Amino acid sequence: MTIRIDRRSLILTGTLGLGAYAIPGFAQGPNWIVDGFTHSVASGEPGADSMLLWTRYVGKGDSAKLRVEVAESADFAKVVAGGEAITGPWRDWTTKITVTGLKPGTRYHYRFIAADGTQSPVGRTRTLPQGPAARFGIAVFSCSNLGFGYFNAYAHAAARDDIDLAVHLGDYIYEYPHGNYPALDQVVANRLPLPATEIIHLADYRLRYASYRTDPDLQALHAAKPMLIQIDDHESANDSWEGGAQNHSPDREGDWSLRRAAAMQAWREWMPVSDEPWKTYEIGTLATLFRTETRLLGRSKPWSSAPFFKEADPVAALKAFRDGAWRDPAATMMGWEQEAWIAAALKRSVKAGTRWQVTGFGTIMGKSVTPKQAMDWLKPDAPDMAKRYVQSGLTLASVGLPMNLDNWGGYPAARARFLKAAQAASANLVVIAGDSHNAWAYDLAQDGKPAGVEFAGHAVTSPGYESSTAADPKIIARALVETNAELKWCDTSRRGYMALTLTPDAVRNDWMFVDTVRQRTPAASIGHSATVRRGRNVMA
Q1: Which one, of 127, 136, 77, lies nearest residue 102 by Cα?
Q2: Does the pTM of the predicted model rise above 0.85?
């Protein structure tokens, strides 16, 4: 399904006196103010008999009333469900209506209708199955930086009939100002979202979402599939946690609690998500899917390796850290309330006879250290930042520390608690993760025993290792796998998405690689596949 961008996509957003914005990919500048349906439709929070439906409609007055119609046929000959809602500038003119009374495992069409009879584009969605299910397909996305290229991964997945659900694991938008990430000479086809400045306030976040959501391939995906969406860090600020972020200074950006609240409000307004911070979704008896939150509500402050390299003896300082603070059981990725929730939910899922327990995390859980030969991979003109990152990773590896302290590698006690909970529940655990921009497959172990598998996805557009390395990606992948016991396969050079296929006795993951992100084309192919069989918790 192709959604065309017309004059109604050029809107005044934020309702706080901001100028209108241009469609990404075209010249910037103010456009005329319009009303009506501005950003097509979306669906999410699927159940066996319910679905949350989303749209944005800018009214001519101070509010607008919308109704939604749901039908099995595209001509809406028989409307089987619906509802009404009032929207306005207090929620950036977005609307979410949850419809009930639907049939399990059924494809539906839906549309919104304004008081004057104006209709939104028609969307399609599908309820979750109930009871035994032979197959269920999930497309998994993360790290969609508009400036780095076209959203070809979205377009490819939207056109597939074997995908029942989309899952976005975070970094749906990026918070940076123009020229930061990407640099201006890296921007593809002038795909610069607004505002041009770093997003800090509610109006900024609203405008950034409005800008991203004009992309036709993103609109097509939302209009074709229900989507479950999680927050990672760039929906607020880089390497965010409960009390701050790497990319946030009180002197420069103000009170973190205000910025965090603004980021979360805009996310809830613009995404087809419920207000629950975490939630379970039952895919019949085939799988329980867990939506988690690992950035803003309970996460402890992540460690940075930078201060250790200012010590007189960095290696000694890192060893002391490894044997002390790094292992602190008080540090948590999810927060204690969510840890207790997921441990109990895993037990309930297994006790109910559900075949698989699929958990989405924003960052990678598999253990990874930097290979000794990593410095040889860099381009001769690699930026100093890349050289420092690799050298830091080598020093961390020399004392047995992981290359990334911002992901689960920086929270070993919390990782152990989660994996022990999965083992105690006898879960058939499949972890899906994003954030790294590269593709990975891990066998997760705890106390020397299998605990589950992790399929970690590459970015939709954001660049990976290849941006700073000159070595053959196959050489890099081989060294990474040989160095890390849990890692079974990786790719550090291509963009795309994951296609997860659930069946009662096996789960297969296909890493789909798009041909390019520098031109708009939906071409993609399977680059690698991995399978886990029920009862094993390791890849076949």
Answers
A1: 127
A2: yes
